[in-house]
Structures are given as structure tokens and as C-alpha cells.
């Protein structure tokens, strides 16, 4: 049977048929199928693809615009930060200078207060020394006067009991003693 089929095919194919060219009905039906597929692709798939590509393009452009806006905002924030930093440094310098001036004023005031306190203490000390000197002088006069009267009474052999007279003698003695010390100095 295979032989019969091959023989029959050989007899029909003997008519000068080119094996590279399809039959005319294959060309027509293939063209119709191609045109239908082309129309469906043209009407359905292509608009969807175009819509998808347009959406993607819009999304990319939107993202680029957002990125540009974010970059502008970042640059503006950086400039603002830089300006604030410069202002803060300037203010810190002013505060530091003001603190130095205040420190100098405080030191000067402290020196003035210390000098005034030292002058007051010196004056108080001089007054206290002078008061103690006067007290010592009065005490010394009375003691020296008493001793001098006792010694004079022992030398004379009498008791000098007249206070006014004795006081005048002691005062004269001390005045002479002070004059002799003043002449030596």
C-alpha cells in the first residue's frame, strides 16, 4: 500500500508543480488569517500597548519631576541650613565677645571692689592702731607717772599725794622725753 501511495503521488506530482510555492488556496487563506490577526492586533493589542507605554512614560516623567522638586527642596534646605549655621556662628562669636567683655568688666569691678575693701581695711587698721597707740600712751602715762612719783617720793623721802601737782610733773617729764626722742629722729 505504501508503494501504491507513493506511485499515485508521483503521478499527480508529475504536472510541473514547484515545491517552494504553496497552492493558491493556501496563499488566500493565509492572507485572510494574517489580515484578521493584523486587524485584531491593530485594534486591540496596539492601543493597549500604546496606553501602557504612555502611562509608563507619564509615570517616569512624574518621577523625574518629583525627583527634580525633591532636589530643589534639598538644595533650598541646604542653603537654609548653611545660612542658619553662619548665623549661629556669628551669634556664637557675638556671645563669646560679649562674655569676654562681661568678664573684663567683672574682673575690673572685682579689682575695684578689692581695692576699695583694701583701702577700707587699711584705714580701719590705721584707725585701730592709732586708737591702741593712744590707749597705750594714756596707760603708759599713768603707769610712768605712778612709778615716777613713787621713785621721786623714795628719793625725796616724802609722799607726793597732790594729784594735780604730781600729774603736772609727770606731764612735763614725758614732754621732755618726747622732745628728746624727736630730736634724735
Automatic annotation (TrEMBL):
What organism is recorded for this protein? Microbacterium ureisolvens
Q: TM segments? A: 27-46
> Does the record's keyword annotation contain DNA-binding?
no
Q: Which SUPFAM superfamilies match?
A: F1F0 ATP synthase subunit B, membrane domain (SSF81573)
User: Where would one find coiled-coil regions in this protein?
Assistant: 60-98
> Which function does this protein serve?
F(1)F(0) ATP synthase produces ATP from ADP in the presence of a proton or sodium gradient. F-type ATPases consist of two structural domains, F(1) containing the extramembraneous catalytic core and F(0) containing the membrane proton channel, linked together by a central stalk and a peripheral stalk. During catalysis, ATP synthesis in the catalytic domain of F(1) is coupled via a rotary mechanism of the central stalk subunits to proton translocation.
Listed A to Z, the keywords are: ATP synthesis, Cell membrane, CF(0), Coiled coil, Hydrogen ion transport, Ion transport, Membrane, Transmembrane, Transmembrane helix, Transport
NCBIfam families in alphabetical order: ATP_synt_b, PRK05759.1-3
**Which family, according to UniProt?**
Belongs to the ATPase B chain family.
Q: How does it assemble?
A: F-type ATPases have 2 components, F(1) - the catalytic core - and F(0) - the membrane proton channel. F(1) has five subunits: alpha(3), beta(3), gamma(1), delta(1), epsilon(1). F(0) has three main subunits: a(1), b(2) and c(10-14). The alpha and beta chains form an alternating ring which encloses part of the gamma chain. F(1) is attached to F(0) by a central stalk formed by the gamma and epsilon chains, while a peripheral stalk is formed by the delta and b chains.
Q: Which PANTHER family match?
A: ATP SYNTHASE SUBUNIT B, ATP SYNTHASE SUBUNIT B', CHLOROPLASTIC
Q: What is this protein called?
A: ATP synthase subunit b
UniProt topology in membrane = Single-pass membrane protein
Protein's cellular compartments: Cell membrane
